[in-house]
């Protein structure tokens, strides 16, 4: 299967130095995901709050990038496949590390 949403990939500037919602609520994350449509930074599905997936559900922005650590891969939520990204977004950092405490 291939992704048909490559036109949604943009050059973005990450909006925060960590998961936007976790930073506001005092939550924690395992890894970060960057929305390649708008620059929203959310936590991965291994994190308690799964904010990257929640962002997709709310906005329908289809493509995320593995952002922390920089992982160089993309994922399409709609087609449920890894996608080739045209570039890798530089981190706005340093990004604080959060662990369950």
From TrEMBL:
<dbReference type="Pfam" id="PF02148">
    <property type="entry name" value="zf-UBP"/>
</dbReference>
<feature type="domain" description="UBP-type">
    <location>
        <begin position="1"/>
        <end position="101"/>
    </location>
</feature>
<dbReference type="InterPro" id="IPR001607">
    <property type="entry name" value="Znf_UBP"/>
</dbReference>
<protein>
    <submittedName>
        <fullName>UBP-type zinc finger domain-containing protein</fullName>
    </submittedName>
</protein>
<dbReference type="InterPro" id="IPR013083">
    <property type="entry name" value="Znf_RING/FYVE/PHD"/>
</dbReference>
């Amino acid at each position: 299967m291939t992704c048909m949403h490559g036109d949604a990939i943009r050059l973005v500037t990450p909006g925060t130095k960590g998961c936007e919602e976790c930073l506001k609520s005092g939550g924690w994350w395992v890894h970060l995901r960057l929305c390649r449509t708008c620059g929203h930074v959310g936590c991965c599905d291994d994190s308690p709050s799964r904010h990257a997936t929640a962002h997709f559900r709310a906005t329908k922005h289809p493509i995320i990038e593995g952002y922390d650590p920089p992982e160089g891969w993309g994922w399409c939520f709609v087609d449920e496949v890894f996608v080739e990204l045209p570039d890798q977004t530089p981190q706005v950092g340093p990004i604080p590390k959060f662990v369950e405490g």
